[in-house]
Amino acid sequence: MTKTPLTIKDLIIDCEDPERLAAFWGELLGRPVAATTGPYIWLERGEGPGVGFQRVAEAKSGKNRLHFDVASPDPVAAQARVEALGGRLLEQYAPGGFLVMADPEGNEFCVIPPGPFEVDDDGRTDYLGDRSGA
Asked: Is the CB of residue 18 less than 8 Å from the CB of residue 54?
């Protein structure tokens, strides 16, 4: 038996409205909708895994057990863009120093800088600096 490693080919997001989420994520990632097959909508394949959206009957419940980290050289500007596209800031995670957002169906994701940043032993960071305006 060979031990060929597996690779992540696609990430599938279960959702109630795949058209809406595909439009949101497609615009955010610069990957337009490429195909619709049955209950799936696929974004154009870019770097990394494919991204698809699967229509499901049940609504999201609870915190995601897996989330995306998307990189931006200006996370604060990215926050405004996410909000303009229909996402929202999840302020309850602010004490950890991460910029945690939610897509239109409430799926959590982080906006992080593209380069390295420090994380302490408690999992906190400060790449956003002091955003209090003080």
From this structure: yes
Domains assigned to the chain: 1-56 (3.30.720.120), 63-128 (3.10.180.10)
Pairwise CA distance, residues 29 & 51, whole Å: 10
Chain CA centroid to CA 133, Å: 27
pTM of the model: 0.89
Three-state secondary structure call for residue 68: strand
Residue 13: HSE in the Cβ half-sphere, 13 Å Cα cutoff: 31
Total length of the chain: 134
Tens-digit pLDDT profile for residues 59-93: 888 888 899 999 999 999 999 999 999 999 999 99
Torsions phi, psi of 53, nearest 5?
-130, 125
